[in-house]
Every structure is written in C-alpha cells, then in structure tokens.
C-alpha cells in the first residue's frame, strides 16, 4: 500500500474539511484553493489552475516517453441543506456535499501523495480536479479550455461512490455506464386578463395541464434493456400568486433521460412536438430551451479491462453491475480518450446520493486510491 496510516488520517481530515465548506457548480474558488494548497506539498511537475473555470490539474512526469493517463474527480457540491449532526457538517446554509465529491477529491489527492514519493517510470499522470459536474458544464468547459490540449489524455478514469452497493464492492461494466439527460424548459405565453373576465385573455392553463401527463407518457423501456426513455416533470409555474388575474404565462421544467445520445434526440423531437401542438391549440407563443445537458457515459473496453485487472490485483470484489439512470459528465472524456469509470460501494444501508443526510464514507478513500494507483502503475510502471 503506497499510503501510510498518517497519509490516510490526513486525507480523512482534509476530506471532512472540504465537506464543511461546500461550493456549488461554478463557485468552487475556495475548494480549488484548498486543492492547490494540498498539491503544493506533493510537488507535482506542473499545476494548471483556472482550468475550465475553477478546475485544477496536477501533472506528474515520468522519465521515459509514454501515454498520458488522467484521473478525474469533481469539486462541486449541491444546493441542498444538510440535516446531519456531524461535527464536520456543512457550514454554509443551503449547500452540502450530498453526492460525495469531497470524497472523490480526497481520493485523487491521495494519488498525488503516491506520485510525490515515486513518479511514474514513463509517460505522465494528470490529476484533474474538475468543476461543475452537477450542472453538466464542467467537463465541456475543461475540454474547451485551450490549455487542455497540453494535457490531453490517452486514457481517462473516474469513480463514483454508490450507496446500496456493499462497502468497497465495485460495479464495472463495458459500454453504457450512465444515461444521457438534459433539462427542458417550455415557456408558454398568452395574455393576462381580469379574473372576472378570463375570456378577454389567453390563458396557458389548459396547455400546461395537458403537457404534464403527455410528457410523462413518453416514458418507456429500461436501462437494463438499453432502451430507457424517461420524462420527469420537476417544476411548473402558472401565472402569478394573485386572485384577481387570469394567467398569461406558464413554464414547465422537465428532465429528459435516455440510455444513449441517439435516443435523446428522438425524445427531444417528441417533447418539442407536444409543446408546439399544445401551444398552437390555444393560440400561445412557445419558447423551448435546454440546460444541464449530459451525454451518455460509455466505458471503452480496453480502459475497462485495465480497471478490471487492477481490481483483481488488489483483491477487490467486483462485478459488471448495471448502467445507472443518473447522468455523469465524465462521458465527454470518452470523446478525447479511452475512458472508463467504476462505481464504488458506499454501503447497502448508506443514505442515498443527494439525500440531505448523506456523507461520504472515509474508508473508501484508500480503496479508490489503490485501484487508480494500480491502474497507473500497470500502464506506466
């Protein structure tokens, strides 16, 4: 094991410090500064800051030429109020590390401790601390940053903790690992009227009411069958909170989710058709926009084999598992490299991701770090 007991104690304390200072997507300034301060003690050959916004990349060079291997974690937290009584609970109202990105960050920081002691023999390792995963904007911003070309990887790896899976057990499969998703906002505009004379206005009430079940009815299939199509209505606004006004404006927000990007386009087309038909029926203007766009995450067979070999060498129990409905912007790294991610069990009875009482299990830090370090050594020596 490349981590000493002291390393693990320090990494655990640091993870808990990060847990107490959550920053949401695009605001990870203090978290990035913490990462840079930690990395200073590991003396990487190069540190790139402000990557894709607030991202940080640390580069450890080998003596011989070889591939570039990237290990990625996420810096951002969620706009969720933490309800735990932990001593390291969030100090920021309405914000919390309810997805475990603080633990992922500590796991990648553990690799910096290892490479500080012994550089790879060849090639180079890039440790990427990525911003804004929760909104789907971070990976795209990092890849679009002109400095990314300097660290463009041949292989990219990531992990995500997974409550419901036994502690330390791994799911790893080839092919689709996470679904594609995006948020759709449908805005319907008519004309307000006095509530006593609604016939003098144009209300979006019927249109918005019909769209909620119509969008939901587009759902079918399953992840296991590779044909999931899912539309989930999350928010509806109709008019203003007033008794004297018949509404003239409405918004519907929904999440569209499919197994693959190709299926997503078909679902988008169907959702837009429904919105335009409902608007036209009642003489409404319609505007459709999209946010938080995630591509599906596809594990490359060679990259998955490398992770599988590392799991076997480290004696860590694993199985293929299932693709997850949840989305992950790590999938974009598959467009520039051979990439794969695995799921690391957080415990069968552990609170679910995005629950207000979630906390990353610190015992996973050395386990995840061992898997990644073995993968790096197998590739680079």
Automatic annotation (TrEMBL):
Keywords: Hydrolase. Signal peptide: none annotated. The lineage of its organism: Bacteria, Pseudomonadati, Pseudomonadota, Alphaproteobacteria, Hyphomicrobiales. Gene3D superfamilies: 3.30.70.360, Zn peptidases (3.40.630.10). It comes from Pseudorhizobium tarimense. Pfam families: M20_dimer, Peptidase_M20. This is Amidohydrolase. It comes from the Bacteria. Residues 181-282 form the Peptidase M20 dimerisation domain. The keyword Hydrolase applies.
């Amino acid at each position: 094991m490349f981590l000493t007991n002291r390393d693990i104690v320090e990494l655990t304390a640091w993870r808990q410090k990060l847990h107490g200072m959550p920053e949401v997507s695009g605001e990870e300034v203090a978290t990035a500064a913490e990462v840079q301060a930690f990395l200073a003690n590991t003396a990487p050959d190069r540190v790139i800051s402000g990557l894709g916004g607030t991202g940080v990349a640390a580069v450890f060079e080998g003596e011989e030429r070889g591939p570039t291997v990237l290990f990625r974690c996420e810096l951002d937290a969620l706009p969720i109020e933490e309800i735990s009584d932990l001593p390291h609970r969030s100090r920021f109202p309405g914000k919390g590390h309810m997805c475990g990105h603080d633990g992922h960050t500590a796991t990648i920081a553990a690799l910096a401790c290892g490479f500080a002691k012994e550089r790879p023999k060849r090639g180079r390792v890039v440790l990427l601390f990525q911003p804004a995963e929760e909104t789907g904007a971070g990976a795209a911003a990092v890849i679009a940053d002109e400095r990314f070309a300097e660290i463009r990887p041949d292989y990219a790896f990531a992990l995500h903790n997974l409550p419901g899976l036994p502690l330390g057990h791994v799911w790893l499969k080839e092919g689709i690992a996470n679904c594609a998703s995006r948020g759709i906002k449908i805005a319907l505009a008519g004309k307000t009227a006095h509530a006593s004379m609604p016939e003098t206005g144009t209300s979006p009430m019927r249109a918005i009411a019909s769209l909620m079940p119509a969008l939901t009815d587009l759902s079918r299939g399953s992840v296991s069958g590779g044909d999931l199509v899912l539309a989930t209505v999350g928010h509806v606004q109709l008019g203003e909170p007033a008794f004297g006004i018949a509404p003239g404006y409405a918004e519907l927000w929904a999440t569209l989710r499919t197994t693959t990007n190709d299926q997503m386009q078909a679902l988008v087309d169907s959702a837009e058709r429904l919105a335009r038909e409902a608007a036209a029926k009642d003489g409404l203007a319609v505007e459709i926009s999209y946010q938080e766009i995630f591509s599906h995450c596809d594990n490359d067979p060679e990259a998955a084999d490398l992770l599988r070999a590392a799991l076997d060498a480290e004696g860590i129990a694993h199985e293929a598992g299932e693709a997850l409905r949840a989305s992950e912007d790590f999938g974009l790294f598959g467009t520039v490299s051979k990439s794969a991610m695995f799921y690391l069990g957080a415990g069968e009875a552990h609170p679910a991701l995005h629950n207000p009482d979630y906390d990353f299990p610190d015992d996973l830090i050395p386990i995840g770090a061992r898997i990644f370090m073995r993968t790096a050594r197998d590739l680079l020596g």
